[in-house]
Amino acid sequence: MNTPESEPEHVDFIRKIINDDISSGKNDGKVVTRFPPEPNGYLHIGHAKSICLNFGIAAENNGVCHLRFDDTNPEKEDTEYVESIMDDVRWLGFDWGSNLFYASDYFEQLYDWAVQLIKAGKAYVCDLTFDEVREYRGGWNKEGKDSPYRDRSVEENLDLFARMRAGEFKDGEKSLRAKIDMNSSNMNLRDPAMYRIRHQHHHRTGDTWCIYPNYDWAHGQSDSLEGITHSICTLEFEDHRPLYDWYVESLGIHHPQQIEFARLNVTHTLTSKRKLLQLVEGGHVSGWDDPRMPTISGLRRRGYPADAVRDFCAHTGVTKFNGMTELALLELYVRGSLNKTASRAMAILDPLKVVIENYPDDESEMRQAHNNPEDENAGIREMPFGRELYIERADFMEDAPKKFFRLTVGREVRLKNAFFLKCNEVIKDDAGEIIELRCTYDPETSGGKAPDGRKVKGTIHWVSAKHAVDAEVRMYDVLFPEEKAGSAPEGVDWLETLNPSSLIVKNAKVEPSLVGAEVGSSYQFERTGYFCVDKDSSVDSLVFNQTVGLKSGYKPPEKKA
RNA sequence: UGCCCGAUAGUGUAAUGGUAGCACCCCGGUUUUUGGUACCGUUAGUCUAGGUUCGAGUCCUAGUCGGGUAACCA
């Protein structure tokens, strides 16, 4: 018990349950979990947490985690989604091995089990219309009424159900319902639907079925069939658990344990499939993989490393408390991962020309730069330096305050990996806009230090104007300025709460070594942030996405009124 | 309005009934050829009221607040 180097290793309540089950010998000590998405959309950050939980728990306990497509509703499902979901799970770093399943593979078994329930007098064919069913069900404070078809004989039910399957009835004309309790305080138990008639093509079973099982009827039985031991889902299914239990117990089959945890909510981030779809269809974003989208494919295109997403999920905790995790936590892990792996590069997002008056007109030289100060093995690269440079506009200021450690007239700064630079004169256009800085450099400071020992407070980055390459840089901000994304005050369309400047495109000047950078690769633009090469990039036109900015300890001086 | 679930620093998350801890954010400092990283530090918490107990964040009762829930969706 007293582990020698006992870290305060905290286990969440789900892992606690599972540990207890293992030590008590339940399920022969085995652990089988599952991730059961419906293939009707793209996976998002919320799914990532569920994936990490289910695959993580299985791996920790020498168990397996199944990937199962919950494809019981042909109206909304498609193989396109099946593919993207598999892609996303793999990208996240998980492997289901041979454990790939589809609820639709169980349609025949489910049908047989439904027959079994009918024979046991626990299910019946109901002729009530959709609206009538709702009316008969009653409400929270309204008693339910038994369906007039509730007491049909087993024989009649069997016959009718067979004919439902055979396609004798139109959509919605009949349904198969479980006979439970029309006055239960839990609405899910007021004779829930097991089958509905849908003459609809299914992406896997084609046209062999015209009746399809509902979620509750399909899910627990699929779990049971696969030998799932712990069926982990989100809180909104808590009220479904009694029904889940009722079905497996009525059937007398293996009984997996359903455990619910709180869905992941992230500030400024939307996880409603419906609203996400509206963003895409309304053209508010460029697609499901728009770098501003919380989809896994969006995060990937944005440049978020998979290990950062995993770390984030692992550190948000597993509880039944419905909270809101700050986006800052995700960004912490993104920066942490990228800091160790991303090559550094110099890029000027808002170029301001600098002319070094004492540097020979037609000369240039190569300067050496570390690819990654965090990684000795990352090596060194060379970048050209010359008489004309670009620096960031924000790195120069007239009438700068004392705390401004960058360039201003008469003050000296260090050009990273190069020399000390002093500004002598500011050139403006007719509109008073600064268009050029006339400067001098000190050739003696080539090592970045002055032989006479004088110091500079700031170091800024630069690119050689003559050698720099143009690049499109897409700067992203949150889609929703409000912490609770997608919520709007009464009478206001939630789409109006969209951040109008969530995307800003810059025409940047970047160092020439970036030419040919591979799509998807990440860089740290020094002093600016992390960026990755977008798929829109080509050999002659570079396109970068800002993944996340660097943390900045610098507070811009107070604006003078 | 019924039922179910929840409530610990600003945020998220720990604590066999026995010293309320950790991380993020914020703020400050040291180091630094990135105002980055790393390191150090400051601020700040058990929803309320009763009860059980030597002792309650933890157990009980009531209340308050928050979330979920009435599809032939999942």
Report on this structure.
- This protein has 561 residues and is an alpha/beta fold.
- It folds into three domains: 31-261, 3-Layer(aba) Sandwich (Rossmann fold); 273-341 and 471-510 and 515-549, Ribosomal Protein L25, Chain P (Beta Barrel); 344-468, Ribosomal Protein L25, Chain P.
- 24% of the residues lie in helices and 23% in strands.
- The chain has twelve helices and 25 strands.
- It has helices at residues 13-23, 45-60, 79-91, 107-119, 130-137, 154-166, 215-225, 241-251, 273-281, 296-302, 306-315, 327-341, and strands at 32-35, 64-69, 100-102, 123-126, 175-178, 193-197, 211-213, 230-234, 257-261, 343-345, 347-348, 351-356, 364-370, 380-386, 388-392, 412-415, 420-428, 434-442, 459-460, 463-464, 469-476, 503-510, 522-525, 529-533, 542-549.
- Helix 7 packs across helix 8.
- It starts with 12 loop residues before the first helix and ends in a 12-residue tail after the last strand.
- The chain binds one RNA strand of 74 nucleotides through helix 5, strand 5, strand 6, helix 7 and helix 12.
What structural keywords apply?
3 domains, RNA-binding, Ribosomal Protein L25, Chain P, seven-stranded mixed β-sheet, alpha/beta, 24% helix, Rossmann fold, single chain, disordered N terminus
